[in-house]
Amino acid sequence: MERALTPKGAATRQRIVEGAAQLIRVRGVPNVGLDDIRAATSTSKSQLFHYFPAGKADLMLAVARHEAGQVLEDQMPMLGDLTSWRKWQAWRRRVIKIYDGQRQRCPLSALTAQLGNADPATREIVTTLLDDWHGLLAAGVQALKDAGEVDASIDADKAATAVLTAVTGGAGMLQATDRISYLEVALSEAIDNLRRPRARVSAA
């Protein structure tokens, strides 16, 4: 459990985390050391280990939590207000723009690859992110159902899973191939599928 910090201490810690995140986005985890972070954030060695006693391991987890929060923050306010088709399309464009700009430098993916998803702390960060993301998407699908804009038989949770999988899968293929088209097509299809009428099964 993290110890309580004074407002000044919390601000200093956050400044270190944000500075480390900026370096990692540019250079990648393997090419960023504690000395680089200290120089970029004007932090002394004693300060760094005061806030991150285990050194780089602690700091990288803090950066991973920060970047996980940024994944959703970067999609706001669209992601939190998916109440119409126009807003769903605005969110889709926002997501594609974000990943098109990041390309192979998705900061959260770089961190989780370096830290390893087998680590319970890393897995918890990623799982919490995906659960929160899924919840916002499911709320958006439910809003469309409540407005009568999609078939009432659509399962909001399953639809949200399909959309989220399209984003994460498309982003993964983007990193592997540097082709944004995988994300564009997968996400567009997942959203368009919400609008397609469901087949009715008649009783025999």
From TrEMBL:
Entry annotated with the keyword DNA-binding: yes
Keywords: DNA-binding, Transcription, Transcription regulation
Domain HTH tetR-type residues, every copy: 16-63
Protein name: TetR/AcrR family transcriptional regulator
InterPro entries in the record: Homeodomain-like_sf, HTH_TetR, Tet_transcr_reg_TetR-rel_C_sf, TetR_C
Family matches, as SUPFAM superfamilies: Homeodomain-like, Tetracyclin repressor-like, C-terminal domain
Domain called Tetracyclin repressor-like C-terminal: residue spans: 103-187
Top-level taxon: Bacteria
Keyword Transcription regulation: yes
Organism (species): Kribbella sancticallisti
